[in-house]
Amino acid sequence: MIFELMDGSLADLLKNDSYATGRYPLKRDQFIWLVLEHVLKGLQHLHANGIVHRDLKPDNILYTCRNGEYQFRIGDFGSSNYTSVAKTCVGTPVFMAPEIKHGDQLQSDKADIWSLFVTVLWMVNHRQIRQTARYMSPEKISASVDSLDDEIRFLGDMASMDPNQRPSATELLHRLASCRDVPWEQPKRDDDSSTRKASKTPAVHHVKTPHSQLQW
């Protein structure tokens, strides 16, 4: 598996909220929206090719920052599989969708939507999830939507216990766009001659599958 050189992971940026205090600080809502957009574009590409990641979490969302412009990429495809055959229980417990944690059924790409929702909870440390992860069940995570902050309340259906009731990556990208007056742009920096838009390159790396290696 081949990776471009990355600067670190989302987990690194969340330590001491370094995304808000570094050389190129972002406000929390800007940071959340940027991560969501980039990761959803990556998931959209994976899911269109019939692949479910199954271990989406802050440690597996990598980033680069060049001249104040953050780019996020999905990494670590060791647990990924085709949705046509994915049935095994894999991943990181607190981020696992209920159908992976409790069932022995084919797993759809909606499992990644659940994991991304838990990742957002982790980003804002909703109900101290970082400190209480070992005690969090899918049922508790789903129930947490009743107390979401306003900035992420519109994501609540990502935590539906029924995977068929969760929105797709494409639906969520449309939702993000409809919640803003203009398409997302990186915050303008003092040293920028113009505002730089986020890359349209799919936010995924090489994916090693059971039968071949796909490059996107």
UniProtKB/TrEMBL annotation:
Regions of compositional bias (Basic residues) in chain numbering: 197-209
Biased composition (Basic and acidic residues): 183-195
Identification of the protein by name: non-specific serine/threonine protein kinase
SUPFAM superfamilies named among the record's database cross-references: Protein kinase-like (PK-like)
A UniProt-annotated Pfam family: Pkinase
Region listing for Disordered, in residue ranges: 183-216
Domain Protein kinase: 1-177
EC class name: transferase
EC number: 2.7.11.1
Keyword Nucleotide-binding included in the entry's annotation: yes
Taxonomic path: Eukaryota, Fungi, Dikarya, Ascomycota, Pezizomycotina
The UniProt record lists the keyword Cell cycle: no
PANTHER family xrefs: SERINE/THREONINE-PROTEIN KINASE NEK, SERINE_THREONINE-PROTEIN KINASE NEK11
InterPro entries: Kinase-like_dom_sf, NEK_Ser/Thr_kinase, Prot_kinase_dom, Ser/Thr_kinase_AS
Tree of life domain: Eukaryota
Membrane-spanning residues: none
Catalysed reaction, written as an equation: L-seryl-[protein] + ATP = O-phospho-L-seryl-[protein] + ADP + H(+); L-threonyl-[protein] + ATP = O-phospho-L-threonyl-[protein] + ADP + H(+)
